[in-house]
Specification:
The protein is α/β, with parallel strands linked by helices and 461 residues long. It contains 15 helices and 18 strands. The chain has helices at residues 16-29, 43-54, 58-79, 83-110, 115-122, 124-139, 149-152, 167-177, 206-217, 250-258, 270-273, 333-343, 367-377, 407-417, 443-455, and strands at residues 4-8, 33-37, 144-146, 183-187, 190-192, 198-200, 221-226, 247-249, 279-283, 295-298, 310-314, 318-323, 348-353, 357-362, 384-388, 391-397, 422-430, 433-439. The longest helix is centred in the N-terminal third of the chain and has 28 residues, at 83-110.
Length: 461
Amino acid sequence: MSKIVVKFGGSNLQTQKDIRQILNVVKNYNRPLVVVVSAFYGITNLLEDMLLKARHEDAAIDHSLDDLIALKRDVIFNMITDPVLQKSTLDQVLVRIRELERYLRGVNYIGDIPAFVSDIVMSFGERLSALVLTALLQDRQIDCEEVTPEELHLITDGEYGNAEVDFAESEQAVRKRLSSDKTAIVPGFYGISKENRVTLFGRGGSDYTAASIAHCLQAESLDIWKDVDGFRSADPKLVPDTHGIDRLTYTEAAELAYFGAKILHPRTVEPLMFHNIPIRIFNIANTDRPDYPFTIITSNGKQKADIIKSVTYSDDFCILRLQGPGIGNKPGVLARVTTELDHKNINIKSVITSQTTINFLLSVKDLQPAYCAVKSLSLTVVNNVVTEDDLSLIAGVGEGILETHGIAGRMFGAVSREKINVEIISVGASPVAAYFIVNKKDRDEAVRAIHREFFTLPAGK
């Protein structure tokens, strides 16, 4: 029988009530699973803070580790009934925390955070959650074991902080290790390079771990349990009358994730498309319905009558603008800039050019490093380098957006009627998305305006 890969995120691991819901979900499947888990809620941020403080504050290490031990001890002694299992689980937690402490002491000693140490330290949230969840399931007589990425031989390309799985190196080993009838509990977020070094998949990367394992197993499905009812037509925090989306294509889901929807990591669909493995999104509040997903993502979606399925936004976009007469026609300018940004490990999200301007869309964290990198090139054709932040990108997503006349016009018309100034418009970069950039203060109303245009029926309809 093919396996189902099930993923639980940190939002499902906030309280002991949340953890009990996860235990019920696993039990209700009533079959062997591969369960991929994120760190308990807030632990990744805690580890990041521990790393930064460890460089200069030796005393902060002890305080932070004590907090981490207390959190795990509380779960272990309140939720595991078998005293022998309680003790053995706590002992294993303390072993891992002592290992974490060694890395933090090393950071304090050298006063720096090497990339390989950062990746190892940040992986401990998932290592601890998988260990504890395995014990909790065993306490409830579920036949399971923890299986780490090291044991799986989940091999990556070796890039620190943003690795991807080398499937040619991983598939056979993963399939063999997960061939038993036991439920496997796998810590997400990281894999192992060919040199046996921990490499992270980036923030939110446990989704990618689960998708990669599903690819290797040619799984029946990837089931992702959230604390919301799947994908919606907009963020319910901004729009009160959103609609659920029961079907999406891989491309639609990827673009929604890229442009800010928090349901999936943007790279989750990549490993699944080749084998057409469905992604099923569930709400953890409905633990008795492991057969009732709120959203299903496959290669075959269904096109909405007026195309737009969801309006999403991201505040993690800013503009680096190069200005100069004839800059758009000067050979080599774009190549020199993109090469320099690549050397600085700065990801370019998009490039939009004209005769006098080249606009680079970047993440907010990369804006100042990119500005300094471009200034250091001393390009004679560039008269001015301008940065713009405090922006939001608004995207409308749906299959058929390029082929259907007037959809982009309706989007921008809806925003224009609210007298919102649009900085940059892009249609055609994706076959399923049109987006534009506005000042962040106009973000909420822009989202609501587009949602009204496509999801509010005219009077009498």
